[in-house]
Amino acid sequence: MTDNDLRTLLRDAADEVAVPRLATDELHLRTRTISRRRRARWGAGAAAVAMAGVLGAYALSGSLRGDEPHIAAAVGDPRGWAVAEGASVHFGDGSVVTYGGSVNDLRYTSVGMLARSTQSNTRLSLITTAGVEPLDLGDVSDRLIGTAPDSPYVSWTVADGDGWLVRVVDLGTGEKVADVPITGKYTWAGWKTPPVAVDGEHAYVALDDRTLDVDWRAGRVSTSKGLPGSYTTEVIDGRAVTQDARGTTQRVVEVATGEVLLTVHSSDFPADLVRLKLSPDGNRALATPYVTCDENDECRYDMATAPIYDLAQGTETAVALDDRIGWTPEGHLIRVAGTKVEVCDEVGQECADAPITLKKRVDTISGTMNQS
């Protein structure tokens, strides 16, 4: 039986089972302190396509420093969207799971959301509607790991002599599926080892002068034509956002060829600083401004509205931002205003309240990448 046959059987079986939904999306990168004791951080729409037809999530425990980790199956829906308020993760179906510490990073995978705690940079867990299962991936502290919303793979780099290994683990089986050696100069960022992005069976590793395209299944390493060095980005369905050295011009490019699909200049916006964020299918891009936070960590976008670009049609639609905004796995927008959470269509025009009750405010939307 081929992988495709197995996927088809699982998908057909999943269609006959009534399951709740899970998960959201947003890229959120915190920056340094700015004037008047206010902090600025990137807020951007979420990205993620959750893999249909997966019936269960899996818990990974053990260590990758030799022995293969132990896997215990957990009943729960790995699809959907969620927001986190402190240690409470609120799913779009209204269910709530409590995490052991405040959540500052919720990323989609096809077997659940990969969560990181603000209390420990090394504490990773897999979250579904069934609950929280801690993971032991070895030492992943101060490393930017890569995940893909439509696959179970997680990747990061490990020091290896004068270079590194690009390590890939299947969260659905617990297997270490690849350790691909790479070399190059890495000084541009503060993480211990070079940061990684994942798209299918490709891992993208940002070095000083180039980004490596690692076909980890085949063990082949090449230089990406579409991604520069010294810059970290998500790669979604073969597309990514890049920026110039000054950060004032951003582009959506085809990673394999470098073809430019969209160019945006920060100077064209009132807030002067914006970040492009791709939708889960890579067909739209949302230009969000900085999120400015005060000393009480109360945060607001620096613009009231932002444009969504349809890359295929060449059209542009303005969407109201409110406090926070992100994408569901299906490409619908999630919008948060105070304690109100609503789900909208792909361009934020038709919206409905989500069955979520918050006490204060949303700290994180699933799919976020939030590491200083």
Automatic annotation (TrEMBL):
<feature type="transmembrane region" description="Helical">
    <location>
        <begin position="40"/>
        <end position="60"/>
    </location>
</feature>
<keyword id="KW-0812">Transmembrane</keyword>
<keyword id="KW-0472">Membrane</keyword>
<protein>
    <submittedName>
        <fullName>Uncharacterized protein</fullName>
    </submittedName>
</protein>
<dbReference type="InterPro" id="IPR011044">
    <property type="entry name" value="Quino_amine_DH_bsu"/>
</dbReference>
<keyword id="KW-1133">Transmembrane helix</keyword>
